Structure prediction request, 99 residues.
Amino acid sequence: MTYIGLPMIYYGDEVGMEGATDPDCRRPMLWQEQNQHTGLLDWYKRLISLRTEHEVLRRGAFRPWFTDETRGVLGYVRRSEQDRMGLIINNSPTATIWS
Prediction:
């Protein structure tokens, strides 16, 4: 939701659906709310709200900021004439504290 281009959510990702390899790469949609990961759905809704509220996330220029491959962390900046937003994405299973 913060990267350049249009975001894409493959059906079921927003509720934590799982799959394996073919032919089980994606199971039928889980429509029963009790079977869905509603906390994950709320997270997706928050990310969508951020993109909606901040035009810089939809139309701003992109500039890499830093990469820390050892810790699995990526930083980049989205920038427009009016706004600038720095984003840090942690793609590791370990929480990272920035100071």
Notes: Helices lie at 38-53, 56-59. Residues 38-53 form the longest helix (16 residues). The chain is about 20% helix and 20% strand.
